[in-house]
Request: fold
Amino acid sequence: MVSASKAARDAKRAAEGKPAKKTVASKSKAGSKAASGTTTPGELAVDADGNVLPDDEQPATKDMDEVKRLAAQMDKHGLSDRVTTGVLSSLKQSRDVKITSASLVFHGRVLLNDTTMELTYGRRYGLLGENGCGKSTLLKAIDMREYPVPDHVDIYLLNEGAPPSDLGALEWVVREAENEMKRLDDEAERLLEEEGPESPVLLDLYEVRFFQR
Reply:
């Protein structure tokens, strides 16, 4: 129970715009929470002095960052856990991609060794294999362009849903489409300058750009 004298002191400090002093019990409670690193649901973590920790130091934020890191197959330094090798054997301007001497190692486990990887324009491919054999790891390596895939080849990896955003579903899709249209325009300008108007890749870009309008 708060004494009358303490209540008067707190009221005086509040009138002067000063925060009320923490009691030994409150400091002890805050210190124990900070030491244990635990919080109740909906409660923010605090340090030993009872101050709220920054957003990037909150347990929930750290847990989410850890989940993202593991999903991306990266170590604590942000480096890929995958080791890849490969040589682009097809023409750089070609729509078909052929990579020879392709290898893939994940955490010391050899998934591919001296393999030829061919992706022919217009064809569809599927990966079949047991769980844990490396299907997702291979797709992530391709998506991160750890193999020498030419820049004009678009790569999309549907690994998870859209990230949290203040935009509605339709607005988010429209924004992403606008960003992709701008990227195609920039790539078309680059090809026009470097290879001229007869570039086969440029003609393909114009075709894609036309159907996206």
Summary: Strands lie at 82-88, 97-106, 109-119.
